[in-house]
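Late entry, written up from scratch paper. The run itself happened at the end of the previous shift, but nothing got recorded in the book at the time, so transcribing now.
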Amino acid sequence: MRIGEKIASCRRSAGFSQEALAAQLGVSRQAVSRWETGESLPDTEKVLQLCRILHISADELLLDKPPEPAATSRPPRPLWRRWFRRVYLWMGGLGVLMALAGLTGAVFWALRTDQWFSDIGRIGTALLYHWMGPIAAGGGCLMMLALLLLVFDVLLSRLD
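Output as recorded:
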């Protein structure tokens, strides 16, 4: 694509007429028309002004490459989504700590006790009949809930 064609294309996509662009550049409409038809080329100062007004780089205008689409920046996440992410991360971390505490307590209790039910073993007895079981189960539930919220957040991110 030639420079004149690029000027015309970028001018149209920016919504300028030849007169409006000429007024911004401080040249006549005929000068802009000659640039676009390839009869003449703008000087260096006008090229820089063109790039600024049309929001393109000098490389895009002068090099023989097709113009690249404008990079779309991702809008920032809403505040509730950022808090949502913090909640499920903390929930998952707390769940892991609770599950580890319950299992560690069950193992220590099993190593120190002589009383246990043979059907479920020492650790099973500790988990079912002492404080360690509900702690470990609560931690597991928190981890599962955090995992479900993570999946929900990933699905929401894909919709963005």
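The helical segments are 3-14, 18-25, 29-37, 44-54, 58-62, 79-112, 121-129, 132-159.
(Scratch paper discarded after transcription.)
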